Amino acid sequence: MSEPILKVENLNRYFGALHATKDVSFEVADGEVRAIIGPNGAGKSTLMDLITNRTTPTSGKVIFRGEDITGMAPNKIVHRGMTKCFQISKLFSNLTVYENVQIARIEMNKKTFSLLPVRDVYLKAEVQKYLSFVGLEDQMNEVAAYLSYGDQRRLDIAIALAMDPKLLILDEPAAGVAREEAYKLMQLIRDLAAERNMTIIFIEHDMEIVFNYADVISVLRDGEMIATGTPGEIRNNQFVQEAYLGGGDA
Ligand code: ADP
Ligand code: MG
Q1: Of 29, 37, 69, 207, which one has the greatest count of Cβ atoms within 10 A?
Q2: Minimal CA–CA distance to 26: which of 247, 243, 242, 224?
Q3: Beta carbons of 38 and 219 less than 8 angstroms apart
Q4: Alpha helices in 96-214, H assignment, sequence order
């Protein structure tokens, strides 16, 4: 067994008196597609924010590619190879599709690009490559605001890919997208992960998507990670049965 790409050790987070993340420990293997599930308010987004240090843990550790990144500045974490896609797209809506990806590439390569006389030519090829990964090459001159919602999500993914992640975290990638488009997006994410040797962690509510696209599923409830297993194992988990499959509130 190779070293896991991510190790989370005894993470805790309080918001005042609210214990939002309760002693969470788990590991994700290199190349794995991991789903995180749980009802609204279970602490899924908080956990991802703790891993990317958008929220500082009260205690605990995050080890990424063998390095302790707990408390590291979020932009440094991105440069180490961990990128999070946003639940609500934070695109530059008045800029073009092309420009949105270009900004991400420049940010990732500030030092290199300042030395390159052929910067613009090189950059153009790079940006087009990322747009072609998500099937947006033909729309590269369109203003982001005018894209369909599904295409905005694709652009969001292209921007994340432009940061060359080894681990890509997605918070409800399929939210608000029609079922068919959601399946296409998830297939795209899986294909990209395989091609680029990328590990994926995604939060998702839609159990059909979770069971179809995850290698391993972790279940959060009230801030606690109560189960981790294969789709087959999690399908038979009693809490999951009650909350998702037996007419619970999810
Ligand atoms: P999920 O993503 O599973 O729906 P969240 O991680 O968003 O859950 O929220 C977990 C709990 O932490 C909720 O009770 C939420 O109200 C609370 N919470 C999240 N962020 C904050 C914050 N910045 N300040 C106070 N409470 C928060
Ligand atoms: Mg959430």
Answers
A1: 37
A2: 224
A3: yes
A4: 97-108, 110-115, 119-133, 149-161, 179-196, 207-213
pLDDT at 60 over 50: yes
- Tokens representing 173 are 């990638």
CB of residue 41 inside a 6 A radius of ligand 1: yes
Ligand 1 pocket: which of 11, 12, 15, 87 to mutate (most atoms within 8 A of CB) = 15
CA distance 119 to 202: 34
Report long-range pairs for 176-183 (Cβ below 8 Å, ≥24 apart).
Answer: 176/149, 177/149, 177/150, 177/153, 178/150, 181/150, 182/206, 182/209, 183/209, 183/212
- Number of separate helices (H) and strands (E) present in the chain: 10, 10
Whether ligand 1 lies within 6 angstroms of the CB of 40 is answered as yes
Give the model confidence (pLDDT) of 71-104 as tens digits.
999 999 999 999 998 755 678 999 999 999 998 8
What does pTM read for this prediction?
0.91
